[in-house]
Amino acid sequence: MINNKRIILGINWEQNSSASLMVDGKILSCSSEERFTRKKNDEAYPKSAIEFVLKKNKIKSSQIDAVCFISKYWSPSYSLVRHYTNFSIDDYIEEQKNIWFPRIYKKQKKSFLKFFKKKIDFNQYPGKRFWKKIINKLFKTSDHVSNKKIIKLGQDIRIQTIKHHLKIEKSKIHFIKHSFGHAAYAYCSGALYKRNATIATIDAFGDFINYSCYKFFISKQSVNYRLIVEGGNNIIARMYRYITLLLGFKPNEHEYKIMGMAPYCKEKYLKNLFDKFKTFQIVRGKKFINKDMPTDSFFYFKKLFEGQRFDSIAGALQKYTEHLLKNWISNCIPSKKFSHVGIAGGVAMNVKANLEISKLSKVSSIYVPPSPDDSSQSMGACYAYCLDKKIYTQPLKNAYLGYEISKSKIEKKIKKISKKRFLVYKNNISSKAADLLRKNKILAICRENAEFGARSLGNRSIICNPQNRDNVKKINETVKNRDFWMPFAATVLDKYAKKYFSSKKNHDFKNYKYMTNCLDTTDLGKQKLVAATHPYDGTCRPQILSKKDNKIYYEIIEKFGKLTGTFGVLNTSFNTHGKPIINNENEALKIFYETNLDAIILGDYLIIKK
What is d(CA 162, CA 164) in angstroms, rounded to the nearest whole number? Predict the structure, then answer.
């Protein structure tokens, strides 16, 4: 039991709902609800995640000093209809035709909940009786979060829910400004903390702000910040979202596929579209200025793209995104004193744009925290609350904040494993795993605490030899079922980062341990990491690993390097396509048994298929 400590519970209740626990300024645990419910991007109240972070740290609800919900403005409508988990591409298109087209072009009031009434999930926490009353209220007004009249209702719903769940006093419940949550997370969670820095946030919507910039600085031994600029008219996130839909992919989830396709497009094919995009919006000073803005982000582009090549659309969209972001961030940096830059918000998931920002002459270093989209806003809420209250915080040591697998449960499962079908080892497993990788075997890892967020970092990973491009096809066809054009990522030992990645600029490789940024590869890097770089432009989205962050994983790669001369591996998340990353030993073994994975490290054991 933790006694006499300041305890803060952070909650993101929206797409990919999550919960985090901060004790005396340190994030001890954080996890997304999807890891427990197995529903990708679960947007329901994160009851399981909340109970996990409390139970793991032996905290009673009566000990909690503050509960911090991200976003002052909030509506439950998307959560009620399971907008992010259950909507198909056809459903998203129906939403555009029957909700947004009448709203935008005919000025009609259309109820999202009424139209998708059959999709309402009454069975989610806190139960059917609760939600029936809420829905009756929402039917009488606009149920979209942009309706300022429902700010009180949105806060009341969250207050009632947390009181019902944990018996928290109303005076302990706080609502945090969305964009400031992103900014606080980008500054406090990593290497920028207690340094002069420029922090940029950019996303689709949050409390009517979708871009902001702050300068953070130390004064009288405390962290201070000043808002440089904020606004709500930035086009990037919403345009990227709905062009993703127009190209046949799920918005709010598959934007990375469009980003991955973009490098394949030749400049001559994207030029006309890029020139057209540049007429929509420009950067003037520190603000985004509307020019010939599209009426909406779906129907306008549907007409514009008629007859256009898929790769041209992807290429032009990505280039326009980079064009706007580079101009804006370059203009926002107050002086050379603030040349270290942090970025958060949904657009910060665009690793190719992050690479281009890192190359700006005004930027000394760039830091993008783990999963900088809304899934991390439970941590952002904690950090923002502490900044506002002048409470000391600590940066994250690593991202291993999630569920810890049970050694006793693994022992029981090992005893039941068929010795006719599997070889089981407990000693010297790092050397045996390295040798399997050398032989081009595909190896899964499930051990210790799960990583928070969308990237697997060696505890819930699938890894293989990055020198053999055939391994990409093997993983795709037998486990992941990824789109053929999408690159995999790499984990590289910190001692070899300068050999494998371009050093035209003095990158701070300590900022590259979460797979949230790209780097250009050297000729040696292209050779050694051929299966873990982008097939067309040779960039890599690396996890640069230090021994102190993950000793066992480091040892496997180090021993593999001594066998092959390559001190890195291809690393992808341990899941099947469209499913959340695995959480526990049961899910790990299920995928291991049902796919063509060759071996798995499960806790302290190595299991190999005969």
Answer: 5
